[in-house]
Write a structure and sequence with these properties.
Length: 94
């Protein structure tokens, strides 16, 4: 039960943090985004509290390292545009 609670908190944090500032914490995030991005949060930013400004900044900075699964979920949910993802990917490869 404890692991399930941690996983759910991680998923919720991911959804809020990976929006690159496009959504506020008050906005609901889809379950798809929570599930798709939980491992990205754990791998990249779990040293920060899930509801902290630091984790939001960490996930934003990790943008080009996010998994395709997470990015696709964020795009499908309207949290980030395909154009923004493409722009950041192009910048990362320059």
């Amino acid at each position: 039960m404890r692991n399930a609670t941690y996983h759910l908190r991680s998923c919720c944090a991911i959804a809020v943090l990976l929006t690159a500032g496009l959504a506020t914490q008050a906005n609901a995030v889809s379950l798809r985004v929570k599930l798709a991005c939980s491992s990205d949060y754990r791998a990249l930013c779990s040293q920060y509290a899930s509801d902290s400004p630091e984790v939001r900044a960490c996930m934003r900075a990790a943008g080009e390292r996010l998994s395709p699964r997470c990015l696709n979920a964020l795009i499908a949910a309207g949290e980030v545009s395909q154009e923004e993802v493409a722009r950041r990917a192009a910048q990362a490869h320059q």
